[in-house]
Design brief:
It is found in: Cytoplasm; Nucleus. This protein is an alpha+beta fold. Among the domains are: 90 residues, Phosphorylase Kinase, domain 1 (2-Layer Sandwich); 212 residues, Transferase(Phosphotransferase) domain 1 (Transferase(Phosphotransferase), domain 1), CATH 1.10.510. It is 31% helix and 12% strand. It is built from 13 helices and eleven strands. A hairpin with a 2-residue loop joins β10 and β11.
């Protein structure tokens, strides 16, 4: 009987049966496909957003065998503290990967179903801006999910350890364009992402932008029909509340749709630009009231901060944020060694302000779609591919390319400090700035925010 089967065995059987069904779907002998005309015309900016058909061989090139992976340092923890994230090496090729290990025996039945949904979506989706899953298998009582290693980490890592007052406008344009391309694909496949935030935006060593966080995806397809709205509240979403739209938080009969993701894009844009997420320290009830009452976050610069508040104040960032077009030079020191201007003594372009305002419209019907936003004037400043431009825009931050001396970590370690120290070691080893300066930056940062883990 099913209730006598262990959770690891249950999910192992599910994975086997699910992949058989996927094979039948490929032969068009079973099931329904998410809607969306793959033949539709798209603009140049979004030409990569919709592929002709989803590839289903994402997890076939890496062996589902625990002996093929050498676990190195622990780089994170999440999913109600039941998931451990390891940097690992795939022995057959020597490639570095990320391995997420979930203790299935400690998971509730609801959590197991949640993980099954993620695996289904990861098997079904294939897009240049979605994190590719290399393998998924059961090892003892753990679910192992292998993904590509992102050498720049997440956008959250970057603003937490280096760009503490926000990134350059041009860098954000490249990052947000990649996110919107991924969302355009997800939405046309009939899903809502529901977890867009900086920690789910990953950047590879060659400067490519990827959206992760597929666990929270929700299908808007029911019995072969696309629903106009859905009502399910995202499970295990406490850490995502600041990014969720008013209609998702409100939980009324009107429901929500893919436009809720666009609101999250606006919040994420503020997070990247300001160095912190709006509503972060508010109680959930106050946050809901603020959003329902029409409180709209904004980009912090000379057009939104009163002149009297732009007093002299050293920047916390370790690099200039003046690389982007539309931004004044800031976050530097004067020739005589005096402190820099206020970190927000800068001016973002009117296009960027308008982009954020459109995303954060209280009425979801007034928000543009992901595809429409890809045509926004904000993205006209992009002249090259992200892989060609982002590494230079993120300088002096360098991707992690060497792992000499890294050893397997004891899981009993305090996980909160491992990614922090890893980030500091990464920055110190590759930046022109001194160790003393980085220690000063670290101490100036908000310790509570630093100790938080990414879901």
């Amino acid at each position: 009987m099913s209730f006598l089967v262990s959770k690891p065995e249950r999910i192992r059987r599910w994975m086997s049966e699910k992949f058989i069904l996927e094979g039948l779907r490929e032969l068009e002998l079973f099931g329904e496909q998410p809607p969306g005309d793959s033949r539709r015309k798209t603009n140049e900016a979004s030409s990569e957003s919709i592929t002709t058909s989803p590839k289903r061989d994402n997890m076939s090139s890496y062996l589902p065998d625990i002996s093929c992976y050498e676990l190195l340092t622990i780089i994170g923890k999440g999913f109600e503290e039941l998931m451990t994230v390891n940097l690992a090496q795939y022995k057959p090729s020597g490639e570095f990967v990320t391995v997420r290990r979930v203790n299935l025996e400690a998971c509730t039945n609801e959590m197991v179903a949640f993980l099954q949904g993620e695996l289904h979506v990861s098997k079904f989706f294939s897009h240049p801006n979605l994190v590719p899953y290399k393998a998924a298998f059961i090892a003892d009582n753990e679910l192992w999910v292998v993904t590509s290693f992102m050498a720049y980490g997440s956008a959250k890592d970057l603003i937490r350890t280096h760009f503490m007052d926000g990134m350059s406008e041009l860098a954000m344009a490249y990052i947000l364009q990649g996110v919107l391309k991924a969302l355009d694909y997800i939405h046309h496949m009939g899903y809502v992402h529901r977890s867009v935030k900086a920690s789910h935006i990953l950047i590879s060593a060659d400067g490519k932008v990827y959206l992760s966080g597929l666990r929270s995806n929700l299908s808007m397809i029911s019995h072969g029909q696309r629903l106009k709205v859905v009502h399910d509240f995202p499970k295990f979403s406490i850490k995502v509340l600041p990014w969720l739209s008013p209609e998702v938080l409100q939980q009324n009969l009107q429901g929500y749709d893919a436009k809720s993701d666009i609101y999250s894009v606006g919040i994420t844009a503020c997070e990247l630009a300001n160095g912190h997420v709006p509503f972060k320290d508010m109680p959930a009830t106050q946050m809901l009231l603020e959003k329902l009452n029409g409180t709209v976050p904004c980009l912090l610069d000379t057009t939104t901060i009163p002149p009297e508040e732009l007093t002299m104040k050293p920047s916390r960032s370790g690099a200039s944020s003046s690389l982007g077009e539309g931004m004044a030079a800031s976050n530097t020191r004067t020739s005589n060694g005096e402190a820099a201007l206020h970190p927000y003594h800068r001016t973002f372009s009117s296009y960027f302000h308008n982009f954020v305002e459109q995303c954060l419209q209280r009425n979801p019907d007034l928000r543009p779609s992901a595809n429409a936003l890809l045509n926004h004037s904000f993205f006209k400043q992009i002249k090259h591919r992200a892989s060609e431009a982002l590494p230079e825009l993120l300088y002096p931050v360098m991707p992690i390319t060497s792992f000499e001396g890294m050893q397997t970590q004891d899981p009993s370690h305090i996980f909160g400090w491992l990614p922090i120290w890893s980030s500091l070691r990464w920055m110190i080893g590759n930046s022109r700035l001194s160790i003393e300066h980085h220690c000063e930056i670290f101490l100036q940062s908000n310790l509570l925010n630093t100790l938080q883990f990414l879901a």
